[in-house]
Amino acid sequence: MIDTFDRARFEQALGFLPLGAKFIGAKSGQLEYLVPICNKIRCYCGTKFYPAPGYSTAKCPKCGRVGEITGLTPGEVSVKVYSSIDPITGVCRESGDDSIRLVMVGHKGKPLGKIDNYTTRIAGWEERLKNKFRIMWAIAQTLPRCPKCHHVVGWNVCKSGQNKDRMFARCWGCNVWIGWKDET
Ligand SMILES: [Zn+2]
Ligand SMILES: [Zn+2]
User: Fold this and answer.
1) Which of 33, 55, 151, 155 has a CA that sits 20 to 30 A from residue 111's CA?
2) Taking 70 as the threshold, does the pLDDT of residue 116 lie above it?
3) Are 136 and 104 in contact (CB under 8 A)?
4) Alpha-carbon span 127 to 123, nearest angstrom
């Protein structure tokens, strides 16, 4: 039994996200959101805060010290959320095949590997969705960078041969091999 929800309820369910979810349109026939992934950074003065999007440095809101961001900067890796909410009716679609889908994306909105994540919409979906975000957050911290262009790249799964099912990273843009996940 699908739990029917509308836009307001869906956005409320995304309310726990520290950097929020930005509504980006309905190209796929459903409302889409973009959620930046980023951890709090800790200043020498002890203050923890989220850095502003688009910069590789961050300014502490308390003491004003400016520091380099060593982890992911906001906007570098995001989760694209396909809500299953019909833009015309404003409620989630009736079809049982639909689900809420999360796709991790990187530079220029390119999907980072095959970490698609589906959440069925039966009762309790809010909590399950929250868990999926937690998993994505954790995976995002493990993503390597291309040594050439410095963009974050996703994990891919080897489909055949002696390394079948092994995860690896490669920058497809630069055609640079980065490595196996189990060796990092
Ligand atoms: Zn500070
Ligand atoms: Zn590259």
Assistant:
1) 55
2) no
3) yes
4) 9
Rounded to the nearest angstrom, the distance between the alpha carbon of 136 and the centre of ligand 1 is: 29
pLDDT score for 119: 86
| Whether pLDDT at 84 is above 80 | yes
Ligand 1 center to 110 CA (angstroms): 34
- For ligand 2, a single-atom ion, the residues with CB < 5 A are 146, 148-149, 171, 173-174
For the CA atoms of 6, 16, 132, 47, the dihedral, rounded to the nearest 10 degrees, stands at 160
Find the 177 Cα to ligand 2 centroid distance in Å.
9
DSSP 169: E
Say how many C-beta atoms besides its own lie within 10 A of residue 125's C-beta: 21
d(CA 25, CA 153): 25
110 forms bridges with which residues in the sheet?
Answer: none
Q: Where are the beta strands (DSSP E) in 117-173?
A: 117-119, 156-157, 167-171
Closest ligand to residue 144's CA: 2
According to DSSP, residue 136 is labeled H
